[in-house]
Amino acid sequence: MTREELLNTYQDIHLVTHPFVKHKLTSLRDKNTSTREFRMLVEELGTLIGYEATRDIETLDVEIETPLEKAMCPVLKGKKLCIVTIMRAGNGLAEGVLKLSPSARVGHVGLYRDPETKQPVEYYLKMPHSVNERTIIVVDPMLATGNSAIMAIDKMKEMGAKDIRFICLFAAPEGIEAFKAVHPDVAMYIGAIDQGLDENAYIRPGVGDAGDRIYGTR
Ligand SMILES: O=P(O)(O)OC[C@H]1O[C@H](OP(=O)(O)OP(=O)(O)O)[C@H](O)[C@@H]1O
Ligand SMILES: O=c1cc[nH]c(=O)[nH]1
Ligand SMILES: [Mg+2]
């Protein structure tokens, strides 16, 4: 499917088109952007896209007392959010989402993509308790084939998660289609939908290897 077909087919694919987001994504694409700047931009984008991804979380009215009178006012309802980072590149994005909700719980899923098979290999998993009662926000800057995000969300569902959202910065149309085929119930919040994958399953034009650029490895 093309980018337009995907957006027309799935109501819950949210492309975040704010000019600040577009500008910061362009800085990430630039090969001359430094490691320090890249890491800061990823975090900032986590906050901006995280804001959109949490727009509909529930509130409940409680009585408080202002200096002048009592009033019923909204507060966040239910258990703390759970932000799940797909390591390692997801960590920077998770820090940005945490700025919105500093008391959120954080889950870690360690996956690396095997360079030959392009399949994710799990090396770590740690989640907070009561996953079934929390809004789960899975974050990873890159959705290429979609296999890593699909596997991470499989694990959340195996643990009983029901309300799951996914945030990424750059997605390939192929990856979105694969993701939606397996997880049609998971809303996606995306910075940019790029042209597609190259022969090494890298997103084009993309940013290259996001993890390497965040941490200065290579
Ligand atoms: O959609 P996919 O084809 O699965 O590819 C995307 C995955 O690849 C990257 O991680 P990588 O395996 O490079 O690990 P890293 O974060 O440690 O660099 C990226 O951060 C995603 O997790
Ligand atoms: O383009 C890509 C694809 C997978 N992982 C990345 O970091 N970048
Ligand atoms: Mg990587």
Automatic annotation (TrEMBL):
Its EC number is 2.4.2.9. One of its GO terms (molecular function) is uracil phosphoribosyltransferase activity. Residues 16-217 form the Phosphoribosyltransferase domain. Uracil binds at residues 203, 208-210. The keyword Transport does not apply. Binds 1 Mg(2+) ion per subunit. The magnesium is bound as Mg-PRPP. This is Uracil phosphoribosyltransferase. It comes from Marinomonas vulgaris. The lineage of its organism: Bacteria, Pseudomonadati, Pseudomonadota, Gammaproteobacteria, Oceanospirillales. The gene is upp.
